[in-house]
Amino acid sequence: MPKHYPIYTIETECQDCYRCLRQCPVKAIQVEGGRATVVPELCIACGQCVAACPSHAKQVRSDMFGVFKLLRGSRPTYVSLAPSWVTEFPDTSPQSMIAALRRLGFSGVSETALGAQEVSAAVAQTLSQGGPRLLLSTACPAAVDFIRGYMPELVPNLTPLLSPLLSHCRMLRRAYGPQIGVVFFGPCVAKKTEADNHPGLLDAAMTYTDLRAMLREDGINPASLVPGPADVFMPQPARDGALYPIEGGMSDTVKAYAGNAQVCFTTLSGIATIEAALQGIQNHVLPRPVFVEMLACVGGCVRGPCVSSNRPRLLDQLDVFNRAAKPVPDTPVRPAVVAISERKNPSPVDIPVYSEDQYVKVLRLIGKFGPEDEINCGGCGHESCRGLARAMLEGMAEPSMCVHFLRKRATRKANTLLRCIPAGVVIADAKLHIIECNEHFARLFGEDTLMAYEASPGMEGATLEKIVPFIGLFRRALETETDIHRDALRQDDRVFSVTIFTIEPRNVIGGVIFDVTGSELRRDEIAQRAREIIRKNLETVQEIACRLGENMADTEILLRSLAEGFSSGARTIAEKDLRGRRP
Ligand code: SF4
Ligand code: SF4
Fold it and tell me: 407 with 415: CB under 8 angstroms?
């Protein structure tokens, strides 16, 4: 089954903040429907978006169950452990760390730094043989992918070597057999793409986050393990290769080789720094050979995207520095112990060119009608308004990402509403100072207020208490965080309909106020008339009732006499009838 790209987004967790996009050095993130997702074809797997995402929506593929499966299988599997592990598990000795990994089921643990040492030897040899004037390191796969994709003109300057990790894999396979499994543990996401692209060398690249999860799963606490005699690095511990995770570490190891006195060594960490330093360099003749150590992460791998340390970086750098053996000056140049040559090919990212007309059209969609509107705030995650426009042209962004435009539009809408609404509207802060009010509001409270409004439309900062007679309602709404509504609030000879509501609990409240004095008077008048009609009707009803009462009495008398007449008549007929039947 094909593997997913190493970085993915949990879309439901994406909070639309564009922080990932802001951090992404190559803007490989597409925003669609407010969700920011990684575009693998543009991504260099630097992992900066993962480290930056505040809601952990950007995730790194785990590969943990694949590794557990590998460990359950018949192939002996070895760990390639990144030298930065000392900063991730500062309380654990190397032997206890090895014991923990072996307890997970690995056959042995080896240091990736061994591969780094071979890379340093090979670089030193290339330099001593008078390679290209400018030589760019290939230790960091993210930096290499950046050059291949975004500065392909510099691909010939990349050292034609495998990375330290892949070199180490080759060493392990030579030492323990081509069939072994190799699993890397480190701080890096880009190593996962190395594993995906070189399945024959590296079975899986795991992060420290993965390692912690595996240890947790098996209930292993490395710091508490008592190591045995077999808990040692295989085939031997590394030396100065362990300096690679810190800025300048690789350069120091290469510099130590004899014959490099003419070479200028420099370190560039962070993709933006690399880009700025190398842009257009191919058009210049360098006065002396230059070796550039490139690291995608600012500060080096000790600040890789999957480290959990939040100590000052200097402490982590010192831990790495103290643990590594120091390079020995004037080490004789030698070839690498395994074949680690590999030529890199350019893999240029397609960067379309757009006309000025296209830019102008798209910029208008985000309310930019001239250079003065292009404030380049970076809120959208792009470095400039034109950057966002370009992303929109590429189908990678949407107009709603321009916070400035949205705000302007929202403000315009709010202002129009405030102006047109036939009610007094006021918004006030926790101290009941006006944040904003409309003219209707000012008109409600007399000439002085209206003059103050004309002098300073919106009346920002004015004290509400001095204007509104029913300030107590505002206070109560603020304190209780409940909305208050009064239909007919009488103040002297006036009647107000008032609604006060919370905008930000205990911080901002709003009020909508109508003067309903006129309609209240009319209502009083109507009520008065209604009362009169009701009274008259009542009188009529009572009268009718009386009449009905009298009529009822007459009717009763009549009916009684009729009934009595009827019953006495009936009696007489019956008696006659009875007499007539007697013999
Ligand atoms: S991994 Fe790096 S290049 Fe890829 S999307 Fe994230 S920040 Fe951008
Ligand atoms: S600097 Fe190190 S951790 Fe960061 S991407 Fe490069 S190799 Fe990986």
Answer: no
